[in-house]
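[retry 2/3] Fanconi anemia group I protein isoform X2: previous attempt timed out, resubmitting with same input.
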Amino acid sequence: MIKSIFKGSPPSSSEGSNRRLLVYQHCIPLCESGDLQTEVAADIIGLLMLETHLLPGASLAQLASLFVDAIKVGKMGSGKSLELFPTVLTALAACEALSYGKGELSGEEYKKQLINSLCSSRWDPQCVIHLTTMFRDVPLSLEELQFVVEKVIRMFSKLDLQEIPPLVYQLLLLSGKGCKKQILDGIISYFKEQDVRQEEEQKHGECLDLEVQSIPQDQLRHVEGTAILHIVFAIRLDHELGREFLKSFKTSYGDLCPFSIALLLSVARVQRYEEQVFDLLKGAIIKSFKDEQLQQGSKFLQDLLPEHCSVAKMIVDTVENSVFGWDHVTQGLVQLGFFLMDTFGPKPGPFGKTTEGSTTVARTPTQHACKLGGQVLLQGFKIHEPIRGEILEQVLNRLITKTASPVSHYLDLFSDIVVSAPMILLESSSKVTETFDHLSYLPLATVQGLLKAVQPLLKVSMSLKDALILVLRKAMFSSQLDGRKSAVTGFLLLLKNFKVLGSLASSQCSQAISSSQIQVDVHSRYNSAANEAFCLEILSSLRRCLGQQADVRLMLYEGFYDVLRRNSQLASSIMQTLLSQLKRYYEPEQDLLPPVKLEPCISAHGDQVYLQEPLAHLVSCTVHCLLCLQNLRKSANPNADNSDDDDEEEEGGYQSDLQTMLESMTRRMIKCELEDFELDKSAEFSMGSSVGVKNNIYAVLVMGLYEILIEYNFVKANYSKSSFEELIELFSRYHKLSDILKEKSGKSRVPSHKTPRSLLSMSFISTLITVLFRDNTQSKKEALSVLRSNGEFERYALSVVVQKIQQLEETGQTDGPDGQNTEKTFRFLCDMTSVLMWRYTNIPSMVEEAGKKEKHSTLSLLCLEGLLRIFTTCQQRYPDKMSQLLSTMDIADDDAEQDDVTELNYFYIRQFQRALFTQLSRGEEEFNSKEAQLLVSILSVLSRQLKPSSKQFVQMITWTLKICKETSFEDGAFTKGMLSLLFNLHVLYKSPVSLLLELCQDIHSEMGDIDQDVEVEKQSHFAIVNMKTATTAGLLVLPQVDRVLDEMDWLIARKKNQTASDKSTPGEATQTAGQQEPTEKAVTLQLGTLLTALNELVQTALPAGTCTITLLRELTRTYTTLTTLVKYYIQVCASQHRTLPARFEKLVKLSGSHLTPQCYSFITYAQSGELSGGGGDDKKKKKRSEANTAASAKLLRETKAIPNLIFSIEQYEKYLITLSKKSKVNLMQYMKLSTSRDFRINAATLDAALQEQDISQEETESQDAEETQEPKQKKRRQ
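[retry 2/3] Fanconi anemia group I protein isoform X2: success.
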């Protein structure tokens, strides 16, 4: 019917065209109404489309406005007839002219008006998708497209969540026409907003009713997942879109959010973007951590800027969100995790040594990034089934292949995986078994970590255990020493963890064995019998090691004690093994001295002598095992005193044998003189000859034996006076030998000898110092007085304490029993802390010094050194236990306010402040610099625990300032400590520039001006800066200047990025211009004060050398920073047409009129290298000063500090000229022309030289005066 109407209405006649228009006007609502069948409607629309171009312009205009009105009213629900609209618009655009209102418009213009009114009107949410689809077919100019895109993005928030993915899809298709960045930004910011709302709702969800939740989380995540798929698909097809997407994140990471990170990770699956994406994320992560560190370290930045947005948190959120079926993101997450761990893991140091011990706390940005990688992988492993195999495989591969670099971070990850999901690991146990095959080729540390990690699995899986035992047996016969060591480690670990029934419970048995998800009945009858056979079999394997190198034996001796403590049923076989080994070296004849044979303990290979049997460790192991067994028995049946004999018969009598041996050894070792070991004063100890090496080995063995016997006898003595006298005898022998060693090694040119590590156990040394210094029990008094009267012994005890703590600080464990048990070690630390603190505070060093000046002041110093090391270790290894450590120190009993950690911490700070104050009030002659330095170090460690916002922190700063202002001791090291403490505290309190200015003025007034005629005004803010310490202060001030410049550079760069991003979205630029002022103001003020401070330093007569060069470097940096600021203002002037702030002009004036001229005169001063203090008649002095001058001149030449400075000043001036042109402000009026060039004539020096010449010539006037006159005139003419 419609066809026939069209046939009868020729478009050329007006009547025909009107009739046609009528048909159109009726058909469109008819199709939209939904009364027709879809096929019929589609046919009608198809027919109408074909005929559209025949309509005249006016009818087209009418039709178009019909469409627009229908859309405005919301009648275009089904979107059927919208297919016609693009055809109408295209036909319209082709028209020459249309009447519009009173005038005429071209078709293009008319179309633009239509689109404009359409986009500014209200759209029904239902038809948004249809409209977006429709616009794909309309030819649009760029401006029109922007209108449309903006409108669609604004509509996002009005739509239902389910409708977002199809709309995103249509928008991405539309992006083919342009506006790619706008579309991507719009989509990402919409999801970012939704995420934030979702998070807010979750936070407040607890306190609100449940119905409020507008977006169910799982639904949002699924929609996001679909949107990500659409975008990635579009990027695969349109590389331009991909480029735009990555470009938007390159400048700053501030725009990242969990959604965009997930999107980036999905895009990374497209091969051409993979590398770019990971580099981008790596950069963002490390920059985020660095910025966070910078902000946390400076109060000035915290006040100036809002909270830091953490990329790490976003990545962790992305991992959590990926639970909702984001399979396309998980692969990227795995790659990212390993990428971070590989890039930022610990690096091998020189000669393949590990530089960082595995510290418990991440401190640097790189450590944080590595830890983040581990977190991502661990979370991914827990959440996603499909990627588990891959993660596990990659971790194990890295453990095997990365033998040259440290793998502690992978070991940590692996052990976390085992603990979190042991059962899942068993499914892929074949991978773990494969790893075992490589054990004998891996570095020892890796093997130890790996075996510790798989330990929970061995209990459950017989096959794993069998595989491991096979591998370890092979390794026992490995040709590599490390392989055999690995075998010993592995076997000892197995012995520790497979309990034999009937073993006496030791308090530590249970820990670190049971993994939360595994409950295995290791104690059933069958198991324990099997375990016993299994353990004895392992022991017989281990006995073979007793014939191997000293290193292997050493491991065995260090491991037996732990095995025994966990598995006391193995006692008899272990003790028999030790006893038979000991008998090889023991001299059974009671009258013969010495009681041990040292010959078999060493072996020679050519002219090399080396240790074969670590005898001292063997005895140590035997003693500790014996004592441990006796304790276990005591605790098992405390009443049976006489049961020893019964036990003896069971156990083959090793106990009494050992006791007699040890008693006989003690007796005979006391009788021994050093000659008996061929170790008297005349013996040779140089490490160059084989005799010297042999004697050194003997000496260390004998000293070790003495130490073990001291410990054994102390435990056995039970506070009897006679035994303690024997103990002191043993000590005096030890002391004699150690003195000889010290003396000999002091003489040799190579200081070869460190003090050998003490063999006393941590528990013993902790008990010993407690009874020495704090035990007031009446019954023990007499016996203890024997030990207390020996000052050397007290000092030895304290030095061992310091040595043990140092070892703990460096490696995280100590030698000897329980050395690797962190709980116990921490308990010993607490005990030691309280003793050392008591000893230091209750016996003032003044009192001691009256008696013996030399010896006893060192006791206090040892106590302090011990405390300093304990606090440092605790902060590194047990960061969360600091308060626990402090609360065990029981001096604080008299103070009531114990509950608050900060208060407690401050209580101890006050104790040490008091001690330091006492030191300072004693006057300079009595001042003990070493003690003061230790006190300052302790104060700086403890003050790190204070929160910068607390009142205690402010009190601490006030106190430090007061000390620095009032103390005038000429002690460089003390000054250095105090000023470092002041700077570290001050930067967390407020910006340090004013402080730096005062210090620079002090240094200037102390050291005098570079121009000797100038009298510097005497200023003294800080008494601590004086003639002697001014250089030290200068060297401390300059790094602080560097730090301030770092912050300025960072702020300016940040502002630059903001300005750049404002430029790309011009709408917001004007409004931000007003708000952004505070940062600029702060930067200008900071730099102003800094320039004034540097202006003081540049005029100071600094000694040639490091100080001068560092100052020149800092000046270069200052000008570079000023140049960056000028470039920033050039950018601002170009894009926003703002006037320059008056403050900035002042800054330029300050730099030009004050600093630059002074810099040039300082350069002249530095180059002339005139050292004050080099004068005097003394030739030696003169020589030395000349040598100094020469050295510093050479240093100046090599470092190129001067040319760099001149270059940076000139760069600064060059950009100032550009800025002057851009801003129409003459900034160059403040600048003076530079005079510092390679060729220069210093007018004053020249005149002086000429006058001297005149005088000398008058004196020696002679006949040929005319001839000499001419050259002189020439010279003047020049």
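[retry 2/3] Fanconi anemia group I protein isoform X2: The mean pLDDT is 83.
[retry 2/3] clearing retry counter.
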